[in-house]
Write a structure and sequence with these properties.
Blueprint: E1 11-14, H1 25-33, E2 38-39, H2 50-55, H3 65-77, E3 84-88, H4 90-100, E4 106-110, H5 123-133, E5 142-143, H6 147-153, H7 160-170, E6 174-175, H8 177-183, E7 205-210, H9 218-227, E8 235-240, H10 253-266
Parallel strand pairs: 1-2, 1-3, 3-4, 4-7, 7-8
Antiparallel strand pairs: 5-6
Length: about 270
């Protein structure tokens, strides 16, 4: 993949737990229309489609944060220029790690999984992670959400019907390991969820949150922002009222995408 003549740097979209990379298709189309070369490679172990991933969930067993980061770093190493990385949920954590390690020129982290150092742990976040964290054996296994669990964690601002449609269209099994690694990050010196928030020189970073997010509550993302307080590089925050964890795939996705495009333009990207 190479950058289009319109923009100097390509865009790589990174999905989070339980959502297939193909859910980024509308974003890719919009960013392409705006002059970017864009793609959404899946995690190591993902199938090419939602159905293929559902049919072979064991391919994702024991896939952790470090392996996912290394996977995207390898993809980036084959590019002519460094990309812009845009990630949702755990993809947002991965995007921050890629930026901090100089694999990207800019990053947007949407409802990002908390990095090491975040201490806030709201009840809704605990409940959203319970399908995985309730059983230690899930650390090495792949876990699927039920439609009811998805409605609470992702689609809580949507009707049950609208949430169910997204569940059927985009959900895939997810490895339990990243959730366990993230939940215990503050207890491990070399946690794979650690991000160098003090790095003086890096590209700009935008943190985005939905005010009603159950999986990664806005309070958590605002705490991430504080960890970057003494960074000498651009770190911005935008919060979208009334939006939940499904904000990148529900009917309001264009609002988030438009804000992302505008921010990139404001920051020379």
């Amino acid at each position: 993949m190479t950058a289009s003549p319109g923009k100097a740097n390509p865009v790589i979209f990174i999905h989070g737990l339980w959502i297939h990379s193909s859910a980024w298709a509308p974003w890719i189309e919009l960013f392409t229309e705006n002059g970017y070369s864009a793609s959404a490679p899946g995690w190591p172990g993902d199938g090419d489609t939602v159905q293929q991933t559902r049919e072979n969930p064991d391919a994702l067993n024991n896939v952790g944060i470090q392996q996912i980061c290394e996977h995207y770093a390898e993809i980036i190493s084959a590019l002519d220029v460094k990309p812009i990385v845009i990630g949702h949920s755990f993809g947002g954590l991965i995007a921050q790690e890629l930026l901090a390690n100089d694999h990207a020129v800019a990053a947007i982290a949407i409802d990002p999984a908390p990095i090491k150092g975040v201490k806030a742990l709201p009840f809704s976040q605990l409940k959203s992670g319970f399908p995985v964290l309730s059983n230690p054996a899930n650390k090495k296994k792949t876990v699927s959400l039920t439609a009811k669990q998805f409605h609470y964690s992702f689609g809580n601002t949507l009707t049950e019907e609208a949430s169910g449609e997204l569940f059927e269209k985009w959900t895939i099994p997810g490895p339990g390991r990243p959730l366990f690694e993230d939940a215990t990050a503050n207890f491990h010196r070399d946690s794979p969820a650690a991000v160098d928030t003090h790095k003086a020189v890096r590209g700009p970073l935008l943190l985005i949150s939905g005010s009603e997010d159950h999986t990664v509550p806005a309070k958590v993302t605002r705490e991430v922002l504080k960890l970057y307080a003494d960074s000498g590089s651009v770190t911005d925050y935008q919060e979208f009222e009334g939006r939940g964890h499904s904000l990148t795939i529900d009917d309001g996705w264009k609002e988030i995408a438009a804000a992302s495009l505008a921010w990139l333009g404001d920051n020379g990207q």
